[in-house]
Design goal:
seven-stranded mixed sheet, globular, alpha/beta, Metallo-beta-lactamase, Chain A, 8 helices
Length: about 250
């Protein structure tokens, strides 16, 4: 199994792309602006999209992807998400005002978009990969994901503040190789991080202190223009000095 980072920035500009991970060639975790770099041939291979939450930097290219490929496919794209997330997508995105409701096009019995409700702790098996929703703590309903090849696995926090329930699950994973965890703000913006339920370097250290294994740790969702400063603050803490910044187009083999 291979995971490719299509986007991992907290914003856009230059080579920055917002959050999306491509697993093999058929599964997306979130669909931020990085999806736009894929060729039409690659877009046509995507059968599943797992959504962490409905903030625009994580879902922006779901509507555009569907609009691009649907006339060229014979089967629908399946969007996997919690019921709360599905309801937000239905009400605020695929509502005929922002974008057509592809769950009803071309008709109710043969839609371009199918929703598949998931719950925290529920494992979804797709070919040789297992994807499980994990607890998260954000300002909107949100989850992280555990991606398991059965040999090794990767955990992606999604957007989150401190979450004890997350670590209770992660600490039970015996084959954890990689951890991708967000840190959106610098310590100078700790108050904003708290209000928006993101991490800053100080709270990142408190979270990682709860991790009982030793995965390779990569930092995602860095705020544009503050990337270097945030990583310097992370490196200055003995608990987090081994963390690396996730980068666009990075590959993970599991």
């Amino acid at each position: 199994m291979q995971i490719k980072v299509l986007g991992c920035s907290g914003g856009i500009g230059g080579d920055r792309r917002t959050t999306s991970l491509l697993i093999d060639d058929d599964v997306l975790i979130d669909a931020g602006t990085g999806v736009g770099d894929l060729s039409l041939e690659a877009l046509l291979k995507i059968d599943h999209i797992f959504v962490t939450h409905t903030h625009l930097d994580h879902i922006a290219f779901i509507p555009l992807l569907l609009d691009t490929v649907m006339g060229l496919r014979t089967r629908p794209v399946i969007v996997h998400a919690t019921l709360e997330v599905i309801n937000i997508l239905k009400q605020h995105i695929f509502n005929w005002l922002i974008w057509p409701d592809f769950n009803k096009i071309p008709n109710l019995h043969n839609p371009f978009l199918v929703y598949s409700e998931i719950a925290i702790g529920e494992a979804v098996r797709i070919n040789h990969k297992t994807i499980t929703a994990l607890p998260a703590n954000h300002v909107v309903p949100a989850v992280g994901y555990h991606i398991d090849s059965s040999v090794q696995s990767l955990v992606f926090t999604g957007d989150t503040a401190g979450c004890k329930a997350f670590w209770q699950v992660v600490n039970q994973i015996t084959n954890l190789k990689y951890l991708i965890i967000e840190t959106a703000f610098s310590n100078a913006e700790a108050d904003l991080a708290v209000r928006s339920k993101h991490l800053c370097p100080n709270t990142l250290a408190a979270e990682l202190a709860q991790c009982q294994s030793k995965p390779e740790i990569y930092i995602t969702h860095l705020k544009p223009g503050e990337d270097t400063a945030i990583m310097q603050e992370i490196a200055a803490n003995s608990t987090t000095q081994h963390c690396k910044a996730l980068y666009h187009q990075q590959l993970f083999d599991l």
